[in-house]
Amino acid sequence: MSTVPDPVPPLDNQAIERLILAAGNRDEVVAAVAAELGVEQVAAVLADEVAFRADIPVIDLLDKPVEVQLDVVHDGLRVSHVFAASHGVPFQVYPGTSEHAAMVIEYRLVDLVRELYGPAQQRFAGRRRTVPRFEHAHTAHPDVRILTMMRAAHQAIVPLLAGIDKPADLEALAARYYSDKGGGLHWFTPHYERHMNALRDKPVRVLEIGVGGYMTTTYGGGSLRMWRRFFPRGLVYGLDIFDKTVADQPRVKTLIGSQNDPEYLVGMAERYGPFDVVIDDGSHVNEHVRTSFRTLFPYLRDGGVYAIEDLWTAYCPGYGGDEGATAGSGTSIGMLKALLDDIHYQQHSGDTPAQPTFEQANVVGIHVYHNVAFIEKGVNAEGAMPAWIPRTPPAA
Ligand SMILES: C[S@@+](CC[C@H](N)C(=O)[O-])C[C@H]1O[C@@H](n2cnc3c(N)ncnc32)[C@H](O)[C@@H]1O
To answer: Is 123 in the same domain as 225?
Structure first.
């Protein structure tokens, strides 16, 4: 018999972050946090995460949904969710059990917290209990052979578990969630992968300026979902001048404000930062890009990355850029060029300033590609070339 329990109140992002931080710890630490947050609430957030991370099923053998049941067990308690797989659409998840589930997949709660929110695992066998029930599922699909039922179940189970078992490819995520960071208009995804990979496995906080969809409040958030998936342990914040709460979901929160309002940015960063990643994909107006960088770079953690997209507007007067082949000092590109000088402030002729600017002291790397730049933060204090090294090349 199928069962449907009463819904439980959802966990907020602070609670989810506590789980994420506990997930790298010993079982008893994870169990204590789960008990404090509520086992049913934790199981619900894990089920949502499994559904979110699952691949889109390709089921060509049945035209009715195939169900898979996920049971999370802890301290004598069993919390079940049913995942319904239909061809070409995301899994639907609902709490409870199903007598037609083709398989029951059982995890210890502590193990599933660790699989989803812990550092990447090198564990390949014995991760979960699997109970095949193809004959039960067959009763919902009596018109096909049981062997066909088993194969269709396979087509549902594999994409469901893919999100738990395998890290996702960023280009594929951009396509899936409709972000224009890859695939044609821009080719940013390989650059993002290169510069974000070191952070991928960390409990990061990501801020993206520009949620997408402009004034359409019912649309946007493609890249926020992409980052949620790319950073499995991350909290993702999206800032936009328009209301984008439509994009809010576990581990994703949208905020309303302008990237050209330093006072707002400081208040927002004090509350939700510091960030490990900031991405400016907002108005692309040169003045706004510069204001956001100046204001938010101090709220980036050391080891963090600040990305600026759509640098083409530096050459576009309509966005406050400059006409012609050289972007001047008031543009985003002009700012990047000045940062190159800042990185080398200890080499400037004359005395090294006693008090370097914030950028001089903290920008440690700049990588510029067509239309996108990545600025790395750290301690920029390697020391100048010593005075005894001649300042002219040796005579030939
Ligand atoms: C190109 S879209 C963002 C696309 C999204 N990042 C993605 O990859 O799917 C730009 C967004 O920036 C927002 N925006 C425009 N001016 C802004 C400002 N001053 N501050 C914050 N967001 C702004 C727009 O409303 C729009 O939704």
So the answer is: no
